[in-house]
Every structure is written in C-alpha cells, then in structure tokens.
Amino acid sequence: MMKNNNSIQKPKSQDFETLLESFLAAQADEKDAGTFSYKGYTYVVPGHERSEKECSFSGLCFSWGARSFTPEKGEPARFFIDGRGGVNERFSLYMEVTDCGDGDEACPTAFYVYREGEPRPLAYHVGGQITGFYSQNDFTTLESPLTPGYYFLLADGLVDDNEPPVFETLDDYLCLPFVVMESGEKLAHPVALSASASRSENTLEDGPWTSGMLRLKLRLSAPMQAGHELSAICYTEDWRQMAHDERLQAANKRREPTLQLHFRSDLIWMPGRYTVILSHNSEPFASATFDYRGEADMPCVCRTLEAEDAETLLAKSLATHLAWKHTRDFSGMTRLRLQLAALLPKSDYNSFCREQQLAELCENIYAAVSADVLFHARRLAYCLPGMLNYCTTETRQVDCKAWVAEDNPDVLMDERTSHAMTLYNIGVLCSAEGRACLTALEEAVEDSFTFWALTLCGTDAELQRLFACSPVLDRHVRPEYRFRVEAPLVSDTLHALQRTIGETAFRLDAAAENELACQVMQCHDAVSLWSKDERLSYVMRGLVGRVKQRIREQYDATRKPTRKELVTIKAEDIALADWIQTLTKASGASDSIDEQAFAESMKELEAMVGLRALKETLSTTFCRVRFEEHRRRMGLPVAEETASHIIFTGNPGTGKTTVARLLGRIYRALGLLSKGEVISTERRELVGEYIGQTEEKMNAILRRARGNVLFIDEAYSLCTDSDDRRDYGRHVVESLLPVLTEPHPDMVVILAGYDDEMERLLQSNPGLRSRFPYKFHFDDYTADELMQIAGHTLERGGYRLTPEALELLREAVEDAVKHKDRFFANARWVNRFVTVGILPAMARRVMAADATGKEVELYSTVERADVAEAIRLQASPSAAPSRPRIGFKA
C-alpha cells in the first residue's frame, strides 16, 4: 500500500539534547566508520545501519533552503549563495515515489553531503524509507556557512534505475556532484564587447528553416573567473526559449575572453529576431540580438543590462519562476511578456516581505485580458496572480452567463475576499439580464476595504462595450493592466505542430523540416486556427498516412526498410494545402449536426421544471430539422430551409431567457447557427436619442448577433399606441425587417413579452407576423412546480427542510399562486423567497443559537420558524412588482 512517506527519523529535540545525541553518535560512528575514494581524495563514511534491501525512487529533488534542482528534469546541479539564510538553511532530499519492494519493512538509508577534498561530511540524514509517496529527508544543520566550491551528495541504500541515471556509481554508494557558487547579484560582470551568430553551410544544405545548431561567438572584456558560470539562453522575438548553453570555468583550464556558445535546438529556426540573454552566476548582465533570415552569418548587437531593465526581470522570471515557466509556450506574447515584466518591481516587494516574514502589501489589482480566442485570454488570466504576486489565496474563473442566471448576484461578490477572480463571457453584463450583476461588480470594485483581484476576459469588442457600459470599470482597470494576447506568429504555429509530431514516434528529417516551415508560412491563416486535436489529426492522418503510403509504394522485398526509415517523415510527405482542401471538402459534405452537443442541450432542456407543452413542441421541431438533414445527406429532396425566428410569450420568471440560451446551443449543434451564443438586449439599448442613432445602434447589434440568437426582451415596448413617427422604437422594428426576410440570415431573432402586448406588436406592422413562424407560450408554474424549483435551490446549497418547514413552505407557495396576478414572477419569486427570505432568517436563528456539538446539522437544516420569519418579513409576494411601463420616450 502506498503511503505518505516523510522518512523514518527521530523527532527534533532541544539544543542540549541535540548536542548530546550528536556527541554520542560521533563516538559510535568512529568505531563503525568506513572509507571511500573520490577524485583522488579519501573520505570517511560515519557508521550507520546497512541492509541488502534497497529503495528505488523517482522524482528526486535536492534542495538547500529555498534553492533546489531536479536532476531528472535536466536542471543544473548547483546552488547560488545570495547572502540569505546562512547556517540556518538545511539540505533536504525529496523523492516523489519510493519503492522498497514487498512488505512493510523499512529500507535503511543514509545521505551525506561532502565538500570535495574534505574527508568528513558537512551534513547528513540517517533514517529509513518505506514504499509510498513523497519522502522528505531533512539533513542536520551546518556548523558553518557554505562557501563556493565543488560538493557531492553520497547516498547509501538507494538503487538508481532511472533512464538516464540521476546518480553516479561510486563503489557501493551513489554519488551526485553539485556546485556551490556565489550569486551574481553582487559580482562585477564583464562587458559583452561584440558577438556574431552563425549556422554552418552543411546545416543549411537542406534549406534555411531547420532545427539543429546555431553558434554564437562572444567576446567579453575579461575572461570568466574560475568557478564562475556563464549561461546563455536564446529567445524568439516573443520570448519563447529556443535553446541554451552554459559554461562553468574550471580552475585548471585556460581562461579566454572569447567564447564559442552552442545553441542546439529541436525546434526549427524560423525567420525573425532572436535575443540571447547572457548571465553570470544566474544574474543577467548583457544581451546579444540578431536577425535570422536564412543566411549563414549574422551580426549581433550587444547591450549591457541593468538589474531594473524589463529584459533582466523577464529573463530571471522565465528561468526561475514557476508561474512564468507555465507561459513559456503561450503564443501571441510578443509585446505582452515585456509589458508584464515591467510590472515585476511592484511584486518583488511582496517577495522580499515573504522572505523576511513581514506582512505583505495587499493591493487590489483590476486587470483586463483580450484575445481573439477566449481560451488564450483565460489561460493567461489564470497565470497572472502567480506571475505578478497578487498575494491572493485562491484563483477562480466565473462564467458570467451562469452568474447572470443566478437569482442573487451579490452572493458571488460576497465570496470574493482574498480571491483572484476571472470573469469571462462578459458581454452578457451589458444586457438587460446582466444589469444587476454589473451593478454588484461595480460596487465590489469601488469597495477598497475588501482585498481581492479581478481579471476581465473577452474579445476586444466585448471589453470595449463593457467599458463603455461601465465607466466605473473603465476607470479602475489601469492602462498598464490591460493586456492583449495577439494572433500567433508563424513560428508559434510551426513549433506547436512540431511539438505534436514530437509526441509521436515519427521524426522529421532536415528537408522535411524546411518543407514544413515553408508550407506553414504559406497556409498560416488556416493552420494558426487549428486546435490541439486538429493538429494531432493532421499528424496522424495526414502526415503519417502519407509516410505509410510512400513506404508501401516503394517497398522492396529484397531490402526491407529499417526502423528509422519507417518513422522518418520526408519532404514529399508534407502536403498541408492538400490536407486543408480535404478538410474543406469534408466539412461541406460531412454531418452538420453535432449529435453529442445536441443531446447534452436537450438533456438540460428536459431537466427544466414544467414547460411540458413547450418541450414537446420544440422536440418535434428539432426532430424535423434532423430528419431533413439525414434526407439531405442521402441525396433525397428536402424542403427549402427557412429562418427560424420565434415569439416567446408569458409572464416573468417562466424560463424564457434560459430557454433562449439553450436554443442557441441547440441551433448551433443542428448547424443552423455558426456560433450559438445569446445576445440579449432591450429597448434602452436599441433606441437612439436623435435621428439616425437608432439605425446606428441596430446595425451594431445586428453585426454582433450574426451567428447567434438575438433575444429582445419586453419587445412590446418598441411600439406604443401612439401614431407619433418620432417614436424611434418603430425604427427598431423597421431595421429588423430586412434581416427577418433573409432566407439564411445565420441568426435567430426571439421577441419576448406578455401575450396581449406581443399580439399588439405583431398587429402594429403587417410584415412582422409572417416573419416569425414559431410562437411558444410559457405557462405560469403550478404550486408543485414552484416547490420543485425551491427544492432544487435549497439542494444546490446543501440545505434540507424539516417536514414542518416543508409543509409551511408549500402553504406559502400555494397562497402565492392562488392570489397571483399576471405580473407574478414565478420561478424568480420562489428563488428570491428562498434566498432573500428563508436563508437570511435561518442565518439569524443559527447565529443566535449555541451550536456546540451539532454544527453540521444546525447549519444545514431549515426549520419551520425560518419559513415563518420569511413570511412575516413579507418576502412572499403580497405585493406584486409593478408592471413595466409601455410607451416611454427614448
């Protein structure tokens, strides 16, 4: 059985006891000590328990204080002394998984840290391992601070079966050498005087756009000192790492001011600007920039970097900061990474406070991230709190469409304390149904006493509209926190395709790399839009399919192909344009119905309480659409497609907005809409204040509605009983008519409102009625249905009703239904009755009670008194909400 494994060792004791134990252990060690030789020196191994049983491991990480390296990830085995910590910092050895074989018996292990040339260990850990997860082995404290030099870790009781091995074998032990160096922050750095980049003629024989070697000849003002490290990382123009090289200056080697750095990359070198960041003992001190256009030799421009430069901060973050490392392969970050790096000095203060165990500065940060693809914006927003050190405790992403559908928008904002909250699908906040949520959001943003962070995600158009609707948000999201994820560069797209190929057993030869790069440049508009699954489909069906076809056609029984030939992709196998053309044809001829998405949306529609007649009518309609689609694919004649505009009638709270949202998804699944979102609006957003403004607003909303459902609530307010032609609401209807007459508008218009008023609207314009082939009436909910809705609301929150509370709630609901008028808010009322009436009453009762011993039951059980209190406070609809006024001026 796998267990958490913090190693088996004695608990820490007081200082005197520790000294005493160390003295007694040293006496015993002298008697049982062993020796071994390493690099010409003899070392002493203190006596410890040994066994034939050994422990295998994976995920090893060696740390010293806050610094660490993981050999299995290829990280350099080194620590930098930065003046912080000193002797108080311990060595620790972590292993993610340990395996000691069968049985629960522990494997004795021992770990020692030596400095080369010094016979006795500086620190050690003696204990045992058991089969399990996460073994932590903390070493004894150092007697004196570490100094720069060469060290090694000696392990006994471990077996290294990793590929490649993590340790070196040393007699009966395992050995892991590492270096301790002085941090470059306070060192004097050489100056980069000149540099030149080059690729060999042999490398360019198969074409300029290939992976492999690029060399950088660098001349410094002074040679590197012995024991110091020069590292160089080559970045693309959008600051993605291409390759790196590092040189540790050995004491016994001649030091030269001119160095030859080698950048071997598995990625294809594409045309563009590259920047090499040079670091001295991990501290960036210079950059060398060059443009690659396929030539063999490239001059470089060298520049000295200061500690506060954005390039310095960015390079250090990309190299060491986990959140920044997550963004290494993000596309469209050309300008964005430097913009983010410029904000790092603000966050460094909190890092310093954390190291000094001081209170961090908690600043409310309000940001906006825009992108053409919402996923790219959300991905960056998720990383921002870690990248810029927000000091928040939780990251949360919220779909505004789901938020708007909730009955109480304040609940989400009440939970924001210490959270980094990301909102997406923000366009709905500008609609009538999102007005309450937008108000709650504005109030939260203006509240400077609650610590939290906010990131708004959307397209450029969505953010512009939101800021236009909300001057409050526009004012609080400062320019430096407005981020734009750009369209991917050609190199982004190509390297993503390369990584997909790298996940298979197949490999590109040099000529194929060059051909793939050329074709991606030609077809970038199409290939840049591919998802990960679409890239994998091209690789496995397009590329690999052509490889197999080529091998089959060239197969010679007298000479069978080698394994390498079977998995090598050649230039002739690359045919991107043909694959894109095949996809285009297949898309036109393939099934336009997404059966899975259709089934999921229909399941959600069926789960709605009540609406039986509506569900049956919609089901019949959708069945007819699918029937016609299947006939079309069989080559049978089908009826001419017509627009599917709809009239919704019914009282408030009967589910019209929710059904409209589901219709968008269903029509998208049926291939009737290209996007399937819901654009909700009302008279206030459509009618202008002067001549021509209404038409401008309508043109803008119709552009947004293409591919979507345009939902106009309270549509009857567009036409009044007045014959005054200056009523601009009539212009809205007139602007709609051209769209309503289009046979294939890629849009569904839904007009919603009260039954009688909607009838008068249809009578007001002779062309309207015929343009809406479907009319659905939403009946008021019965008392039983309202009880179901109330039950669902309570169940989602983890509440349950006592039988007495259930009985009183039913009486209240039945009374409300019995005395309702046509403006009764149905589901909206019962949800509000629960969330604004019953639950606050329950909260007051619980907080006034002695909760000792029965907290869970007390906090989850709704009593009859809670329902009675809600009724007493007139949470029930004794007064119906006023009916929306008709015929107001614009």
Automatic annotation (TrEMBL):
- Keyword terms: ATP-binding, Nucleotide-binding
Which protein family is named in the record?
Belongs to the CbxX/CfxQ family.
Q: Any idea what this protein is called?
A: AAA family ATPase
Which ranges carry the AAA+ ATPase domain? 642-782
Q: Which InterPro entries match?
A: AAA+_ATPase (IPR003593), ATPase_AAA_core (IPR003959), CbxX/CfxQ (IPR000641), CbxX/CfxQ_RuBisCO_ESX (IPR050773), P-loop_NTPase (IPR027417)
Write out the GO MF terms: ATP binding; ATP hydrolysis activity
- List the Pfam families: AAA
